[in-house]
C-alpha cells in the first residue's frame, strides 16, 4: 500500500449507480446547489490525494513514537501538527457541518467515503477530527444559539477540537454510576467537578482549545445532564482566556492507536454550560454517539480497505510455490494459490459490501436531515436507527477479520512491525469496544430497534430490500433464493424473540450478537446481488466481471454463515442462562 | 489472573478418566516405572507453582522491555535469566527427553499439560525451551551416536539451547528456494554459508551455546540436507571453543512475543555436521517440525486458558449494569449478562475441548513411541499424522479467538496494556503463522493426511470416535445425533474431494482450511460429549454439572458452525479459482 490508492471507482459506482445519489441530491433543495456527481468525485480525488500524500506518511512513525505526556501536556507524534494543519485548511473538519456556522454542508453519503479514506491511512490521526465533528453535531442539535455562535465556527474550522466525556472507572456501559457533579451558578452556568477516563483526544497539541461535552449529574438528580466545558475559557468575543480547571491526569498505554491521546480528564470546578435540557443529557449525547457510532464503523471499513489493498498487492508480488494447475516459473505469485485467493476474496467481498452499508447509512442520514417530505424523513430516521448499531458492530467486526486475514496472507512478514498490517490489527481492535461495545450495539439493535416497535421497522426495511431485489434483471433475482429465505427467517426469528422476551428477560441479551451477525451477513448478500447486477450495466467489462465474481464468492461461501448465527439465535438463552454462576 | 491458577482438576480428569492414562502407562514398559497418576499430579502441581511464582512475574515486564540487540549480542529482558535458571534446574527442558542422555523420559500426554502452563503465563519465555526440546528430538531420531553423545545431554539439561533454521527471505512456505550452501570437508564435516531469517531463539543470553539445526543444500543438489551447527565450537570433551562463524545480523521488531528473540542468522563457513542422510534433510526436520507444530498448538491452548481465566475472573469482579432478570444491587457482576456469559462459555468450551485434543495428540505420540505392539504403534503414528496439523491450526485459531473474545469481556480496559489480555492477543497471533501457516497445515491435513491414503486413516479414526460414543451411557449417545451426521458428512465430503482432486488440482488448496475447521468443530463435539458423560461419574457434583452445562452450550451453539465450514467445502473451488488474476 505504498502509496495508498483510494477505491475511487467503487466509490463512484456506489454513489452513482447503486444508491443513485445524484438524483437524491438533485431533489433535496439544501443539497442541489452544494453537490453533484462531478463535484463529489473531484472532492473524493482531493481527499484521496491529501490522505495519500500528507496523512499516510505519519502513520507508521506515529505508531512507533506514540503520544507523549510531559509536564501535564499531551504531545502528538512528529508530523501530526503539519498534517492537521493541512487537513484543517482543506475544510475537512466541517465537511458535513452546518453552513450557517461555517460548515461545508456536504451530504453524509459523501462524508462516509472521505472518512473511510482517513481510516485507511491512519486510524489514530483521523480520530481527532472525527470527535470534533461529532461534538459539533450534538451542539448544533441541542445547544443554545449563544453557544452555537461562539463555538461552532471554531469547531467546524478545526481551530478547536471536540471531545466526548462519558466514561468513569465505575461507569462504562452503564452510565447510571456517573459521579461527576454539576453545581448551578447564578449566571446560569455550572461548575463541573469529577474525573473521566478513556477520553479520546481529551487533549493534544493540534488545536488551541478543546471543547469537552461532559455528562454529569446535578445535585439531587440521578439523571445525566450534558455540559459544554472548554479546556480554556472562551471570552464573549471568541478569544481565549485562562485555563478552566480542566487538566489531563494521565494518558493510557494501549495496544494500538498510539498516536491518539486517550486521556484521564480531571474537572475541578470547571465552568460548564448546559446543552439541551437538564436531566436529558443522555438523549443529547446520543446525537453525538450515533454520529460517532457510524464513524467508528467507518474506522473498521477503512482498516479493512487498507488490509485489502496491502494483502492484494503483496499476493501479486510475493513469489512462493507453484500453481497447483502447473507452472513453468521458478516460483509463482502467491495469488495463484486457492487458499490465498479464498482469503483475498473474503476480505474484498466483505469490504466492498461494507462500503455499501456505510453509504446506505449515510444516505438514510441525509434523507432524515434534508428531505422535505415528512414521511420520508421519518422513515429514513427509523432506518438510521436500525442501521447504526449494525454499521458500528458489523463493520468493525468484519474490519478486524479483514486485518487478521490480510496479516495471514503476509505469512511471517505480517507479524513484523515494519510491514504495517499488524498495526491495522492493533489500531482497529478498539473499534469493536469503544463507542458502546459491539455487544451493546447488538442489544440496542435487537432490543430497541428490531423488537422495540414489534418489528415494524424491520418489516418495513426488509420489504424494501425485497422490492429492490424484485426490480433487478431476472437472472440476478434467481440468485436471491437463499437470501430471501434468510430474510424471512430473520423476521420469523425476531417475531419469536419478541413474543418470548417478557417471559425470558435475559433472552435478548443472550442472542443479540448472533442476531446482529445473521442480519449483517444477510444484508451483505443483498448488497452483493444489487451491486453485481447493476455493475453489468457499466461500460468497463472487467469491472462488471469482478463484481459478478465477488458476488458469486460471497453467496457461495459467506452468506451461509448467516445460518450458523441464526441457529445460535434459535437455540435461545437456555444454555447461556441456566448455567449457575458458581459453575463459571 | 493474579496469580495464575492452573486447571489441575481438568487436567487430572482428562488424564485419569477421559484418556485413561494410568492404564496406558501401566502397560507400556518404558513408562510403567516412570509415572503413575499420583506422580503425574505431583509433577503438574510443581509445574504450576514454578510457572506461577517464577515465570508469570516476568511476562508483562518482558513485553514492555523486550529483547535488545547490542553490539551483535542478544539480551533478554530482566528476569529471564533467573527464571530460565530455575526452569533448567527443575529438569523441565528435558521433560520428555530420552533418559539415555539425561532426559526425564516423561510421556507426552503429561508434557502437553506442562507446556500449556508455560504458555499460559509467558508465551515468549516458553519458546526458548520448546525449540531446544524439538531440536533434541530431531537429533535423537536422526543424529549419529557421536553427535548424540556430545550434544543431547547439554540440550536436555538446558545448558545449551536449540534453534531451527529453515526460512530465508525467498524461501518460506516453499523451501525449494533455500540458498544456504554446505561444502563437504575432508574430515566428514561441512562448511555452512548463508543467511536465515525469522529464527526464534537464534541467540540469547540464557545458555552458553546455541545448537542450530540448519537446512542447506550440498553443491550440485536441489535437495535439502540437515546440519547441526553450533554457535560456539564444541571440543570432543564437550567444552566450548571459539565462535563457529555463526552470528546474529539483527532481530525483528514484532507485534508481540517481544521477550523472544527472532533473529536473522548469518553462517559464514560455519562448521556443521550432517544429521541423517544427505538430501533427506526435510524428512529429518519434519521430526522437529511435527513436535514443534504440536507445541505451537499448545501455545494457542495456553493463551486460551490464560484468556479464560482472565475473563472469568474479571466477569465475576466487575460491577456494571443490572441483571435482566431483576436485581436489588446497585450494580451486578457482568457475569449476569447473557452476552458476557455467551462469550465466557464460548472461550471455556473451546479451551477445554482444546485441552482434550492436545492430550489426545500426546497420547497418540506416546503410543507411537512406547507401545510394544507394532500394529498399535503404526495406528498411533497414523493418528498422530492426522491430528498434528489439526492441533497446530485449530488450537491456534481458537486460541486467538479466545483471546480476542476475552479482551471484549474487559471492555475498554481490555485495550490497555497494563490489563494484560491484549498482550496475549499479540503474543499468540504468531502461532497461526509460524511453523507452517495454518493454511499450510490445512493443505497437509486434507491433501496428505485425509485424501493421501484415500481416506483410510480418516475412516479408521472416525470409526474409533463412533465406537467410543457407542460405549457411553444411552442419554449421552442421544446427544450425538448431529455429531454423527457431521462425521458422516466429513467422510462423504472428503470422498468427493478425493475423486475430484485429479481433475481439479487446485481444489484441495481452495477448500482445505474450511475442511480442517469442519473437522475441528466436529471433533470438539466428540470430546465434549465424552467429557460430559464421563464427568457424571465424578464425586464432585458441581464438576459434573459444569461439564454438562459446557457440553450443552457447545452442542447447541458452536457445533453448528461445522455446517458453515462444510458448506464452504462443498461449494468447491469454482468461485475461488475461476476469478481471473486480473480481477484482483
From TrEMBL, chains A, B:
Annotated ranges, domain Acetyl-CoA dehydrogenase-like C-terminal: 461-578
Sequence ranges assigned to domain Acyl-CoA oxidase/dehydrogenase middle in this UniProt record: 163-269
Keyword Oxidoreductase: yes
The protein's required cofactors: FAD
Pfam families for the chain: Acyl-CoA_dh_1 (PF00441), Acyl-CoA_dh_C (PF12806), Acyl-CoA_dh_M (PF02770), Acyl-CoA_dh_N (PF02771)
Alphabetically ordered keywords of this record: FAD, Flavoprotein, Oxidoreductase
Domain Acyl-CoA dehydrogenase/oxidase C-terminal: 279-442
InterPro entries hit by this protein: Acyl-CoA_dh-like_C_dom, Acyl-CoA_Oxase/DH_mid-dom, Acyl-CoA_Oxase/DH_mid-dom_sf, AcylCo_DH-like_C, AcylCo_DH/oxidase_C, AcylCoA_DH/ox_N, AcylCoA_DH/ox_N_sf, AcylCoA_DH/oxidase_NM_dom_sf
SUPFAM superfamilies: Acyl-CoA dehydrogenase C-terminal domain-like, Acyl-CoA dehydrogenase NM domain-like
Broad EC category: oxidoreductase
Domain of life, per lineage: Bacteria
Catalytic activity of the protein: 3-(methylsulfanyl)propanoyl-CoA + oxidized [electron-transfer flavoprotein] + H(+) = 3-(methylsulfanyl)acryloyl-CoA + reduced [electron-transfer flavoprotein]
Keyword Oxidoreductase tagged: yes
Molecular function GO labels: flavin adenine dinucleotide binding; oxidoreductase activity, acting on the CH-CH group of donors
E.C. designation(s): 1.3.99.41
Residue ranges annotated for the Acyl-CoA dehydrogenase/oxidase N-terminal domain, each copy included: 45-159
Known function: Involved in the assimilation of dimethylsulphoniopropionate (DMSP), an important compound in the fixation of carbon in marine phytoplankton, by mediating the conversion of 3-(methylthio)propanoyl-CoA (MMPA-CoA) to 3-(methylthio)acryloyl-CoA (MTA-CoA).
Stated family: Belongs to the acyl-CoA dehydrogenase family.
Stated name of the protein: 3-methylmercaptopropionyl-CoA dehydrogenase
Species this protein is from: Shewanella cyperi
Amino acid at each position: 500500500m505504498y502509496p495508498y490508492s483510494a477505491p475511487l471507482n467503487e466509490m463512484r459506482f456506489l454513489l452513482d449507480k447503486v444508491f443513485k445519489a445524484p438524483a437524491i441530491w438533485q431533489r433535496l433543495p439544501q443539497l442541489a446547489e452544494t453537490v453533484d456527481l462531478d463535484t463529489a468525485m473531484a472532492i473524493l480525488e482531493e481527499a484521496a490525494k491529501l490522505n495519500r500524500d500528507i496523512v499516510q506518511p505519519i502513520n507508521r512513525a506515529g505508531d512507533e513514537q506514540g503520544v507523549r505526556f510531559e509536564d501535564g501536556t499531551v504531545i502528538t507524534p512528529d508530523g501530526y501538527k503539519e498534517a492537521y494543519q493541512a487537513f484543517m485548511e482543506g475544510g475537512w473538519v466541517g465537511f458535513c457541518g452546518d453552513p450557517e456556522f461555517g460548515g461545508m454542508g456536504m451530504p453524509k453519503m459523501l462524508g462516509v467515503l472521505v472518512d473511510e479514506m482517513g481510516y485507511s491511512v491512519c486510524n489514530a490521526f483521523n480520530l481527532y477530527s472525527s470527535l470534533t465533528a461529532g461534538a459539533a453535531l450534538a451542539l448544533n442539535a441541542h445547544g443554545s444559539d449563544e453557544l452555537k455562535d461562539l463555538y461552532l465556527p471554531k469547531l467546524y474550522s478545526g481551530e478547536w477540537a471536540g471531545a466526548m466525556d462519558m466514561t468513569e472507572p465505575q461507569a462504562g456501559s452503564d452510565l447510571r454510576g456517573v459521579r461527576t457533579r454539576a453545581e448551578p451558578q447564578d449566571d446560569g452556568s455550572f461548575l463541573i467537578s469529577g474525573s473521566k477516563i478513556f477520553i479520546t483526544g481529551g487533549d493534544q497539541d493540534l488545536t488551541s482549545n478543546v471543547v469537552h461535552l461532559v455528562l454529569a449529574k446535578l445535585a439531587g438528580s440521578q439523571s445525566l445532564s450534558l455540559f459544554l466545558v472548554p479546556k480554556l475559557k472562551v471570552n464573549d468575543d471568541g478569544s481565549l482566556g485562562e485555563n478552566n480547571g480542566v487538566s489531563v491526569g494521565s494518558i493510557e498505554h494501549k495496544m494500538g492507536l498510539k498516536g491518539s491521546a486517550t486521556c484521564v480528564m480531571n474537572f475541578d470546578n470547571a465552568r460548564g454550560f448546559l446543552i439541551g435540557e437538564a436531566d436529558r443529557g443522555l438523549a443529547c449525547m446520543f446525537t453525538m454517539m450515533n454520529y460517532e457510532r457510524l464513524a467508528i464503523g467507518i474506522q473498521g471499513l477503512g482498516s479493512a480497505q487498507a488490509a485489502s489493498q496491502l494483502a492484494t498487492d503483496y499476493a501479486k508480488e510475493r513469489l512462493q510455490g507453484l500453481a497447483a494447475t502447473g507452472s513453468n516459473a521458478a516460483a509463482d505469485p502467491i495469488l495463484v494459490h486457492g487458499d490465498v485467493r479464498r482469503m483475498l476474496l473474503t476480505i474484498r467481498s466483505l469490504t466492498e459490501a461494507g462500503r455499501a452499508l456505510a453509504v446506505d447509512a449515510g444516505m438514510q442520514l441525509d434523507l432524515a436531515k434534508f428531505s422535505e417530505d415528512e414521511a420520508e424523513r421519518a422513515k429514513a430516521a427509523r432506518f438510521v436507527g436500525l442501521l447504526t448499531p449494525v454499521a458500528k458492530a458489523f463493520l468493525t467486526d468484519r474490519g478486524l477479520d479483514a486485518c487478521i486475514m490480510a496479516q495471514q496472507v503476509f505469512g511471517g512478514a505480517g507479524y513484523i512491525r515494519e510491514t504495517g498490517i499488524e498495526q491495522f490489527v492493533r489500531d482497529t481492535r478498539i473499534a469493536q469496544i469503544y463507542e458502546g461495545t459491539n455487544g451493546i450495539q447488538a442489544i440496542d439493535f435487537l432490543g430497541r430497534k428490531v423488537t422495540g416497535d414489534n418489528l415494524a421497522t424491520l418489516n418495513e426495511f426488509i420489504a424494501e430490500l425485497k422490492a429492490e431485489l424484485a426490480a433487478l434483471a431476472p437472472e440476478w433475482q434467481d440468485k436471491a433464493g437463499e437470501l430471501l429465505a434468510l430474510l424471512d427467517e430473520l423476521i420469523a426469528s425476531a417475531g419469536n424473540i419478541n413474543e418470548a422476551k417478557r417471559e425470558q428477560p435475559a433472552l435478548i441479551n443472550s442472542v443479540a450478537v448472533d442476531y446482529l451477525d445473521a442480519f449483517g451477513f444477510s444484508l451483505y448478500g443483498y448488497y452483493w446481488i444489487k451491486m453485481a447486477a447493476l455493475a453489468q450495466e457499466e461500460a468497463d467489462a472487467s469491472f462488471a466481471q469482478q463484481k459478478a465474481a465477488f458476488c458469486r464468492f460471497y453467496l457461495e461461501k459467506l452468506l451461509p454463515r448467516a445460518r450458523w448465527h441464526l441457529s445460535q439465535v434459535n437455540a435461545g438463552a437456555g444454555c447461556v442462562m441456566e448455567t449457575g454462576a458458581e459453575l463459571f
